Every structure is written in structure tokens, then in C-alpha cells.
Amino acid sequence: MQPTFLTFLDPDTVASDAAARFIALAEGAIAERGRFVVALAGGSTPERLYKLLATRTLDWEKITVFFSDDRFVAPTSRYSNAGLALRLLPLCPKTTFPVPAETTLDAAECAAQYEQELLAALGPEPRFDLVLLGMGDDGHTASLFPGKAALHAVGWVTHSTPGVLPPPVDRVTFTFALINAARNVLFLVTGAGKKEKVAQWRAGAGSITSLPVRGVAPTDGTCTVLLDEAAS
Ligand code: 6PG
After folding, report:
1. Does residue 214 lie within any of the structural domains?
2. Residue nearest to atom 4 of ligand 1 (CA)
3. For the whole model, what pTM was predicted?
4. Residue 41 in domain
């Protein structure tokens, strides 16, 4: 099924809508299941959202946080997605799981260990309440880049070579299987550089290999894409 595409004036209004959705889903999941299981996204777009969330009251001890992808770098690196979130959000260390880059030898081993951590925290059929994602100008999402083997990986977490994005380090990423098992997937996509790929996505054009965002289609969940006018 195609995602629901919603257009907002600018990146700030995208972030406020995303924050309202995040909070509503968190409150609902905590009330129903005692915790909210979320995967945070990388890239620069979620920064505004994280800054907004940091000003709200949320019970972070009841929020289990994974990362839908990250570079194979320590959380202290300026390129680390976990590092960005840890700097901006009052995450609870007991319930936050950065990719274990510091304790593993390479991205493949890191992906295998992250998958084990995920299964230990979420059980054998991991299901996120919310997976946050972005889209790159080339149509990639998480670290699922056009034409790369990771697009066809089986299991829940895999590793990937960097695609077009700097820095040239390997990455660890959720697979489509894990993303598509989620209850809710929310994309934040802003900026004119995304316009062409957004148009193809909306038209249902392009294959997963050329336009990886097309691989996101939750089996039993929602998929919403928040766009700003420049990307729309
Ligand atoms: C990353 C993410 C990547 C990101 C998109 C969009 O770590 O960079 O893997 O998928 O979400 O490239 O990035 P922007 O938000 O910076 O446009």
C-alpha cells in the first residue's frame, strides 16, 4: 500500500507535527503495553524534532530506543546518529541501545550484535511502535542505498557500504523486514533536493533497487510521510 503523504509549510511545521505524533504514540503505547518502542532516524532532518521533544515531558524510562541505522563509528563521533540523539534528548541509558560500534570489529559483526540486542529487548518477533526514517536525495532510507546488497538482506539488521553519503564508513541498518513489521513508520522529508524522488515515490514509479523508499510498506501498520513544501 502507498504511504500517506502530508505536506507542511516548512521544516519547523513538519517537526511540530512529528512531535505531536511521537507523543501521542508514546502515550498510547505506554498506556497499553507499558512501554513505547521507537527507532530514531539519522540524518539532519530529525534534529528539529529532537529539539522539540526535549522540551516536552516524556517518561523516557518507559521509552525503548534503537536506531534505524548508524555509521560504524563511536557515539562520540560527529557522524553518529546515536550521538546526535544522545546530545539532544534526555534518553534513559537503561532503555537506549546505540549500535555497538565500540565493542565490535567491523560493521558485519556490529549488525549481528545489534540484532541480538534487539531480540533480547523485544523478543523473537520484534515490532516497533514507531520507526522514524528520512529519505536521501537518491531515494535511500536508513542505510538501504540504491543498488546495494543490503536491500535484499534477510533477518532484522544488516550492514551496508556507505553509498553516496560521506563519511566513507560502513553502516549498520534495519532491514525492510524489521521496518515493515512496525506498527507505525513516519518519514520526515524536507528540502528541494528530495523533490524529484518524492514525485517518483508518490507516482508509485521506480523499483526498490533504484528507489529504496519503495520497499517500505508495513504489513500491518501505518506509513506516513511528512513533507515540507520544498520537497513536495
Ligand atoms: C543517515 C540516514 C539517512 C537519512 C537520509 C536523510 O544516517 O543519514 O541513514 O537515511 O535519514 O539521508 O538525511 P537528511 O535528513 O540529512 O536529509
Report:
1. no
2. 43
3. 0.97
4. yes
